[in-house]
Amino acid sequence: MLSVIFSYIARKRKVLKILFYLIIIFIFAVNMFLWLVFGTTISPLIFQLVAETNGRESAEFINAFAFSKGAFITYISVILLTAFIVFIEKKWKKIKEKEWLQKRYTTAILGCLSAFLLLTGLYNTKLYYTLYKCQTYTDLEKWLTKNLPFPMDSFTSIVYSIHAFNATNNKIKIAANLAKDTYRQPVTDEVNDSINIIYILGESFIKSHASLYGYKLKTTPFMDAEQKKGNLVAFSDVVAPFNLTTLVEKNTFCCNSLSDGEEWYQTPYFPILFKKAGYQVTMWDIQRDFSKYALFTFSVNSFIYNKEIKKYAYSYTSDKSFLYDGDLVDDFFKSKASRLEKKNLLIFHLLGQHISASDRYPHTKYFSKFSYKDINRDESYMTKDKKQEIAEYDNATLYNDYVIKKIAERYADKTTVMIYFSDHGEEIYDYRDSKGRKNAGSSGVTHNLVKYQYEVPFVIWFSTPFMEKYPNLVKSIRESKDKPFMTDNVCQILFHIVGMKTKWYKADRDLISPHYVPKKRMIAGVDYDKYVKNR
After folding, report:
1. What residues contact 78, with CB distance under 8 A and at least 6 apart?
2. Residues of 350-368 as b/e, b for ≥16 C-beta within 10 angstroms?
3. Which residue, among 31, 30, 302, has the nearest Cα to 166 in the 3D structure?
4. What is the pLDDT of residues 295-329, one digit of tens each?
5. Which positions ≥6 away from 283 have C-beta within 8 Å?
6. How far is CA 483 from CA 102, 253, 498, 508, 517, in A?
7. N or C: which end of the chain has fewer CB within 10 A?
8. Is residue 97 over pLDDT 70?
9. 500 φ, ψ (degrees, to nearest 5)
């Protein structure tokens, strides 16, 4: 059998060589592109993001980044590397005949190098075996600390990333088992009348592009008007724990506190507690995808719509795809889910201002309000096209405000409280020639990077009937608007509002509680309050 294998390899070595070169060039290209465009390299997070990206998002990504400066440098580098390899291959016979390659000491050096590479390979075999035994992210972190004091090579990085990606499955299994246990626990609330709790998770909302927070263009007219009337409180000091939707969702929909070292899968998915307490719980999610076998359903969707978790968490979920957030809301209003019970938790997950912003709103006269002429910027990198992109982002923000209005007005005559916040921020040429979300990279964490990617709008709106019925609660909300907060603890506010009786309620994590204790807010690897806010 071995002789057959070796003879096959000998015959096919040209094919194997080409395959080897293709793999090397591909890894080189991916790493260079990620570093130049996003300030990162191959990692578990990159695998996760690729797996969760659908066809629509892929097209938008190509449109946004495939023709960037970093991308063109990558393309040129790949062409030069390929040309170099082809040149060496063609000249290899002549190179081997060079006199210095025939020397004994050269042969000895090459032999030692080969022996070193062989020993390194054997060591890595042990390394990969211990990596394979890691079943959770905690195990992986210990493995990293113990085995890799230096940066990983590209191949090891890929192996590690794939295994870390698979380790997410184990977390979801733990979360699903916890969902079953949670539903067996006694859970009640103090609400004796009808109430609607609306929870809206936005997307890629740059706080400083909201007129609600002082932006010069009128991008949030509904929220501005509701704040003036006294029906809306805009919180001033709220940050997201991450700048990626997948991580924010898991850590805001669960009862964990990152500042206290808790993992999302170790605590319940909070909608389960509401359903157990007698609420009709609905989830209308424009970012859910229904391709059963698609890889991008793996991380978030395989958690939020896990068969076990779904059974205990929801009364109804959306079952269609939509182009715009307004279409999602219209679909909800037409559905059986909109027939309210006595107590309701209504969850909406929007596309908001997700890149590319021009695709996030209908290009009608009302929503195409802003153009490049409204963007008064004169930085050296600013062009007419970039000003237009900023204007389109502001139009998407205007449309987002309209969608929030659409939801709020439907329940304005009922006892209703609504929490809206964005999963994270974004960049749209705000302080540098860059858009989207890029990691710190070699330049490190900066005040502006954190400001635009992690500081988020966070508002609580209440209907007039709610204000009349719960004046003390409204007072507590207003008095808390300037306290520092991180959105991983948002469920504690919901528990407070309805008086949820559960062991998972922690008053020291509840922003509107008199017992609230601000915790260290670690984002992008730095203490936000020490390093960024107070600079």
Report:
1. 25, 28, 29, 32
2. bbbbbbbbbbbbeeeeebb
3. 302
4. 344 556 778 988 889 999 999 999 888 999 999 99
5. 271, 304, 313, 314, 316, 317, 318, 347, 349
6. 74, 21, 21, 13, 10
7. N
8. no
9. -65, 130
